[in-house]
Fold this protein.
Amino acid sequence: MGSDARDEDGRSDSLMIAHYDQTTNDVKLVSIMRDTYVDIPGHGMNKINAAFAFGGPELVRKTIKQNFDIDVNYYALVDFKGFPKIVDLLAPDGIEVDIPYEMSYGIGMTLHPGKQVLHGDELLGYVRFRHDRLSDFGRVERQQEVLTKVKEQIGVSSLMNLPKLLGVADSYFDTNVDNKTILTIGKGIVNGKSKGMETLRIPVADSYEDKRTNVGDVLDINLDKNKQALEEFLSSKDNETDDASSSESKGSN
């Protein structure tokens, strides 16, 4: 969960489900768009990002379980201050991206078009920007791009420095994953020579419509279609990212 610390109601700005298979060493990442209209236990229909404001990580877990029938075992929460620090720890050489056009509105900086290597706060601006025709769909795509590239940079040197990194990163994020589990996963990813990270976006293509409600503009989803896509993605042993993670559609702000 990514939290906008400036948000008065404390909603989760980004919500992702990460899945690691210790047998195959496959890593999968699902982004659930923040305006997805779901039933939040005890609070009724609302945007899924409201679950964190109403009841923290535990209510987010219950909301995912109730709507998508997925049991999430652990959580990790990072805010705007922590994200740049953690990314720089894991990818000290930076992340190369290809910026298609100038990005400035709402991110406190100006990122110019072209291929370039970004670090820390610049990467935060890159994954936060959503004031273009793709809106939040484009932002989700960039978030998945950056995390995929961070994973690609994790190697033996990262594993050797992981205990030190965990100590430094501890002050930047909140999690219920113990260090032993993190070390085990890290070792599995490196030694198991994990393949590239597979990604999925919820809602998947052609499974939602923009809708105006009493809680604002939402993505009114076909729940059965998205549940099926999520189940197939997480259970597949040799899944390939398809147009389900496409961000060619424009969503609500």
About this structure: The chain is about 40% helix and 25% strand.
